[in-house]
């Protein structure tokens, strides 16, 4: 039985049902095709926008739903439960939109947020570079002033939503050196001269989620595209928003653990070996007992974090704990569950195999789990 979090209410239950129907109707039937083409159809963004599933936690004055983090969490959970992972809603609405909402001018918000909420603009954020992963202070992409413009030069990689993106928030160096105050975030519309996309990257998992390289060959943007009141605030902005990103990854992890356990219990009841269902073997029961216990603990921890975050009380170390522990458990549980499927678990047509391959990246993006442990360690 699916978990119902204590922070849920009637309105959120109705949202969960709406999201579930959307993913079941508009996404799940297309997942195989999207995995082959390595990106979703552009039209599905518009369909999500028309239903009000984009920008749920943004103010209504900018086209949003006027909700809070719980609304984004509900959509993310239902997306996992329906086995329709490819549409990058959580990144678009729960992460990128909040950079603009938190640091953008009113003009920037009016220009970009309503179109993000309608699905007319698909957004990405570009931090990682070919030679720079977690070390954001050491990025090489630069933005130099030229009159009233910035001229941006550099390359980014592993950019989710990058293939379809109309707007990219780009982490750049606006001054020389290595300090945190040398980094800024500048919004770049992808129809500007000098912007180009590289190949859509072939990944181990998440094949339907577009992820690509982005190149900036002297891309000229107005200085009014700078996010924030001054240059050099990008690192602080990133550090302030990353806890919510990490909590979104933890939400997906808890939902994936639940789904893996649900699929495996059902399979163990129907699959026979040596003349009886494999559910009857002690090893199967012990494994399922362990993963079901992890599922319960995962939801309990996550629900506490979501409640704290909704009240504005979730601190950076606790978000780091949720991110590393839940994603680590996600990988362990999906692996244990796949093992019970035997050879069928290794077949791409079985959802457990996709849950397993899709899970692996969770320990890497949003800040690697090793970085999470460093954040926690420094807080002790």
Compute the number of strand runs: 9
Based on secondary structure, the structural category is alpha+beta
- As a percent range, the share of helical residues equals 40-55%
**Total number of helices:** 11
Order of helices and strands: HHHHHHEEEEEEEHEEHHHH
Largest sheet: 4 strands, antiparallel
Radius of gyration: 21 Å
Low-confidence stretches: none
- C-alpha end-to-end distance: 38 Å
Query: Whole-number average pLDDT?
Result: 94
Report on this structure:
The chain is α+β, with helices and mostly antiparallel strands. Helices cover 49% and strands 15% of the residues. It contains 11 helices and 9 strands. Strands 2-3-7-6 form a 4-stranded antiparallel β-sheet, with no helix packed on it. A 3-stranded mixed β-sheet has the order 1-4-5, covered by helices on one side. A hairpin with a 2-residue loop joins β2 (142-146) and β3. α4 runs parallel beside α7, α5 (89-103) packs antiparallel against α6 (106-118) and α5 runs antiparallel to α7 (234-270). The chain is globular. The model has no long low-confidence stretch (mean pLDDT 94).
């Amino acid at each position: 039985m699916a978990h119902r979090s204590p922070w849920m209410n009637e309105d959120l239950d109705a949202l969960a049902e709406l999201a579930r129907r959307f993913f079941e109707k508009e996404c799940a039937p297309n997942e195989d095709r999207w995995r082959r083409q390595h990106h979703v159809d552009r039209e599905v963004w518009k369909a999500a926008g028309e239903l009000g599933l984009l920008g749920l936690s943004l103010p209504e004055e900018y086209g949003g739903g006027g909700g809070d983090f719980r609304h984004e969490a509900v959509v993310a959970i239902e997306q996992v439960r329906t086995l329709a992972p490819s549409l990058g809603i959580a990144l678009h609405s729960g992460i990128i939109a909040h950079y603009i909402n938190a640091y953008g001018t009113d003009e920037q918000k009016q220009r970009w947020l309503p179109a993000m909420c309608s699905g007319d603009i698909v957004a990405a954020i570009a931090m990682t570079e070919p030679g720079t992963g977690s070390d954001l202070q050491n990025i090489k992409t630069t933005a130099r002033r030229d009159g009233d413009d910035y001229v941006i030069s550099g390359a980014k990689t592993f950019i989710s939503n990058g293939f379809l993106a109309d707007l990219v928030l780009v982490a750049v160096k606006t001054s020389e050196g290595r300090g945190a105050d040398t980094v800024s975030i500048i919004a770049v519309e992808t129809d500007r001269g000098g912007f180009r996309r590289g190949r859509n990257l072939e990944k181990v998992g998440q094949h339907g989620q577009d992820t690509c390289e982005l190149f900036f060959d002297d891309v000229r943007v107005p200085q009014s595209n700078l996010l924030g009141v001054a240059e050099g605030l990008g690192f602080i902005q990133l550090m302030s928003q990353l806890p919510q990103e990490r909590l979104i990854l933890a939400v997906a992890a808890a939902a994936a653990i639940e789904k893996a356990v649900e699929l495996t219990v059902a399979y163990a009841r129907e699959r026979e070996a040596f003349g009886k269902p494999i559910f009857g073997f002690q090893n199967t029961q012990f494994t399922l007992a362990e993963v079901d216990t992890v599922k319960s603990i995962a939801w309990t921890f996550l629900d506490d974090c979501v409640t704290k975050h909704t009240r504005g009380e979730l601190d950076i170390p606790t978000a780091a704990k949720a991110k590393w522990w839940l994603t680590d458990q996600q990988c362990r549980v999906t692996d244990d569950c796949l093992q019970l499927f035997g050879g069928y678990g290794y077949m791409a047509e079985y959802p457990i195999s996709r849950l397993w391959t899709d899970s692996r990246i969770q320990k890497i993006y949003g800040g690697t789990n090793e970085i999470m442990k460093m954040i926690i360690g420094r807080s002790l």
